[in-house]
Specification:
SH3 type barrels
Length: 96
């Protein structure tokens, strides 16, 4: 099963590569915004997106994002994914 998880874009990190920083329940992850960007890239800041393997696959509204996160937490899948993301971020910090 492919898991997409909602995240809120909080910053544009690389305009040339269409990369942004997404906050997923407190875990921050750089994602490609290329698949969902229409118009100025800065307009993506504050929007909620559905993220899968490092790509924003769809723009969703905040209500849908919160309901999806709640459902995923209930299933336990979100927690496992967030833990994996946090471990990945921790490993990157150790390398830097």
């Amino acid at each position: 099963m492919c898991l997409g998880i909602p995240g809120q874009i909080i910053e544009i990190t690389d305009t040339d590569r269409y990369m942004g920083l997404a906050d997923v329940s407190g875990v921050r992850r750089e994602v490609s915004l290329l698949p969902v960007t229409e118009g100025p890239l800065d307009d993506m800041v504050g929007k909620w997106v559905l993220i899968h393997v490092g790509f924003a696959m769809a723009v969703i509204d905040e209500d849908e994002a919160q309901k999806t996160l709640e459902a995923l937490r209930g299933l336990g899948e979100a927690q496992e994914t967030l833990e994996q993301m946090a471990e990945g971020d921790k490993a990157l910090e150790e390398v830097r």
